[in-house]
Write a structure and sequence with these properties.
This protein has 369 residues and is α/β, with parallel strands linked by helices. 38% of the residues lie in helices and 15% in strands. The termini are far apart. Mean pLDDT is 95; it is low at 364-369. It binds pyridoxal-5'-phosphate.
Length: 369
C-alpha cells in the first residue's frame, strides 16, 4: 500500500489554481483566457527559423541579459531594474518566496487574479482579501486594513482583472506611500490602456517599495512562450535576480524570441490599437443587447447579465460553449451574473454577438451540432 500524508499541511489543504479551459481544436473561438487574437511580430517567425540545435547544447545566458537590456531600453530604465521570468507568474512566486515569511500576511483585493491566493498558500502565508466597492474601486480604508494586518506584500492588478478598471497614477502614488510593505502592481494588461501617458516605470524604479509586473502573454501574443518581467528599484529586483531565481529560469529560445517580440514595439502598438478599437465596438454591441458592461482599459470586458434577461450568465456561458465559443464564467458570489469576454478579432466578436443574440432571443444555437 502506498503511504500518504507526505505533503506539507498547507499543500494538502490547497485546492490549486484552475486555469481557463484550453482546447486543442482550432474550430473553437477562444475568448476565455485573454490571449491576443493576433499572432506576435512576424520577426519572431523569422527568428525561430534561425534557431540551430547546436546553440541548444549549451546552457542559456543565466540572467537573460539581452532581453533585459531590450526591456530596459523600451522602458528607459537600467538593466539592473529588470528581472526576466518564466511568465509573469514566476515573478509572483519569486516575490512571495523572497519577501514574505511563512505565516505572514499578503494583501489583495476581492475579486482579483485567482492565482495570488494559491501562490500565497504555497508560501504558507495568510491571505488578507479586501472587498472592492460595487464599482470595483478600492475602498477608502484599503491601506489602513493592509497595514493593520502588517501585510509584507500587497498585490494590485491594474488594469484590474476581471473588471478592466484602471487606477490612475496619482491614486497609486498615494496608496504606495501609505502602504508599509511592498506593493506589487501587476500590469499584465497595461498595454491596452488608452491613455499613452499612463506609465509607472520611472516612478516605480525611484520608489522604495514598488515592483511592476509585465508579461509577453497578453500584449505580445506569446502566452505559449512563457516570458514576463519585473521592473523595480534595484534593492527589490537584485535579491530575486541573484538569490531566489532558478539559475536558468529562461531557456535560450524563449530569451531570443522574447527579445525580438519586445524589440518590435511598432508592431505591438499596432496590435494594441486594433484591440482597443474592437473593445469599443464590442462594448457598444453588448450594451445594445441589454448587458451592462464595466469600463475596461484591458483586452477583455466584464458584462453583467441583468436578471430580466431570458437567460442567466451561466446559461449563456453554456450556450456559447455548445456553439464552440468559450468565454470565462466565475461562479463566485459577486461574479456569478457576469461573463468575462476576451476581445477577439472583429470576425470572432461578430460570431460571438450573433450567437449571444440568438441565445437571448430564446432561439437555438446557430452552430451546427
Ligand atoms: C496573464 C496574467 C499574468 C501573467 O501571466 P503569464 O502568462 O504567466 O505571464 C499575471 N497577472 C495577471 C492578472 C494576468 O492576467
Amino acid at each position: 500500500m502506498k503511504r500518504k500524508g507526505f505533503e506539507r499541511q498547507n499543500i494538502a489543504q490547497l485546492a490549486g489554481y484552475v486555469p481557463g479551459e484550453q482546447r486543442s481544436d482550432v474550430a473553437v473561438i477562444k475568448l476565455n483566457t485573454n490571449e491576443s487574437p493576433y499572432p506576435t511580430s512576424p520577426k519572431v517567425q523569422d527568428a525561430i527559423a534561425t534557431v540551430g540545435i547546436e546553440s541548444l547544447r549549451r546552457y542559456p545566458q543565466p540572467t537573460a541579459d539581452r532581453f533585459r537590456s531590450t526591456a530596459a531600453s523600451v522602458h528607459q530604465v537600467a538593466i539592473e531594474n529588470v528581472i526576466a521570468t518564466r511568465g509573469g507568474d514566476e515573478l509572483l512566486r519569486l516575490l512571495l518566496t523572497t519577501y514574505v515569511d511563512p505565516g505572514a500576511c499578503v494583501g489583495m483585493t476581492d475579486p482579483t487574479y485567482s492565482l495570488y491566493p494559491v501562490l500565497t498558500a504555497i508560501q504558507d502565508a495568510k491571505v488578507v482579501s479586501i472587498p472592492l466597492e460595487a464599482d470595483w474601486s478600492l475602498p477608502q480604508n484599503f491601506s489602513s486594513q493592509i497595514n493593520a494586518n502588517h501585510c509584507q506584500l500587497t498585490f494590485i492588478v491594474n488594469p484590474h482583472a476581471p473588471s478592466g478598471r484602471l487606477i490612475g497614477q496619482a491614486a497609486l502614488q498615494v496608496l504606495a506611500s501609505e502602504i508599509e510593505g511592498i506593493l506589487v502592481i501587476d500590469e499584465a494588461y497595461v498595454d491596452f490602456v488608452s491613455d499613452e501617458d499612463h506609465d509607472l516605470t520611472q516612478w516605480a524604479i525611484a520608489s522604495d517599495n514598488i515592483v511592476l509586473l509585465r508579461t509577453l502573454s497578453k500584449g505580445y501574443g506569446l502566452a505559449g512562450l512563457r516570458v514576463g518581467y519585473g521592473i523595480g528599484p534595484v534593492h527589490l529586483i537584485e535579491p530575486m535576480l541573484h538569490k531566489t531565481r532558478d539559475s536558468y529560469n529562461l531557456d535560450a529560445i524563449s530569451q531570443q524570441l522574447a527579445d525580438v517580440a519586445l524589440g518590435d514595439q511598432a508592431y505591438a502598438k499596432s496590435v494594441w490599437a486594433k484591440v482597443r478599437a474592437s473593445r469599443n465596438d464590442l462594448k457598444r454591441a453588448l450594451q445594445d443587447l441589454g448587458l451592462a458592461v464595466s469600463a475596461s482599459e484591458s483586452n477583455f470586458l466584464l458584462a453583467t447579465v441583468p436578471s430580466e434577461c431570458a437567460l442567466s450568465a451561466e446559461a449563456l456561458y453554456e450556450g456559447l460553449k455548445a456553439a464552440h465559443i468559450l468565454v470565462r464564467y466565475f461562479a463566485d458570489d459577486r461574479l456569478k451574473d457576469k461573463l468575462r469576454i476576451t476581445i477577439g478579432t472583429p470576425q470572432e466578436n461578430a460570431q460571438l454577438l450573433a450567437q449571444l443574440t440568438a441565445l437571448l432571443r430564446g432561439g437555438q444555437s446557430t452552430a451546427s451540432r
